[in-house]
Write a structure and sequence with these properties.
This protein is of the alpha+beta class. Helix content is 47%, strand content 13%. It is built from 6 helices and 5 strands. It has a 3-stranded mixed β-sheet. Strands 4-5 form a two-stranded antiparallel sheet. Helix 2 crosses helix 5 and helix 3 crosses helix 4 (76-92). The longest helix has 21 residues, at 113-133. 17% of the residues are buried. The model is unreliable at 152-162 (pLDDT under 50).
Length: 162
């Protein structure tokens, strides 16, 4: 925070990378699952393997009732990770009844937390690029001919030796 108690630009951008807070009531939605996975990551509720499993998965059903985890695929490692997750989830969500798992359908894959995180990162990267392009130092370097804007999202820096 700056002296006025406001968030700095860096802090604002970092906050945009975090899943928005939502009320954890009713049925699971991709947004609610994204928020829950973010909290699990922040609080260290799950192991690395379990976190990878749920980041690439989607919970469906009721938050305080019967639900099912949809996983990206089934293999020996994901089954072991699911078993560890199952016991931790029962402790973290005592009103929930996790019935098991299924494999994600193709249309569900674009809604998993890891994809939502990448979408947030893309937005933040674009904002950072725009801020850089509008900075006085970069503007001066461009005007002096040291930087070419190619029209692509990445700028090409000319060699200072040319």
């Amino acid at each position: 925070m700056n002296l006025n108690g406001d968030l700095t630009n860096k802090q604002r951008l970092q906050q945009q990378l975090i899943a928005p807070q939502v009320d954890m009531v009713g049925d699971w939605t991709p947004e609610k699952w994204d928020c829950w996975v973010t909290q699990a990551r922040q609080h260290g509720w799950l192991s690395v393997d379990e976190l990878a499993l749920v980041s690439h998965g989607l919970m469906m059903g009721q938050i305080a009732g019967q639900c099912q985890l949809y996983m990206s695929d089934e293999n020996k490692q994901t089954v072991v990770s699911f078993e560890g997750f199952l016991s931790k989830y029962a402790t973290l969500m005592p009103d929930a009844q996790l019935l098991g798992y299924q494999i994600l359908t193709d249309d569900m894959r674009c809604q998993v937390p890891v994809v939502k995180q990448q979408q947030r990162k893309t937005v933040v990267d674009t904002q950072i690029e725009q801020q850089l392009l509008q900075s006085p130092v970069l503007t001066q370097l461009w005007q002096m001919g040291y930087i070419e804007q190619t029209g692509a999202s990445i700028m090409v820096v000319k060699s200072f030796l040319e």
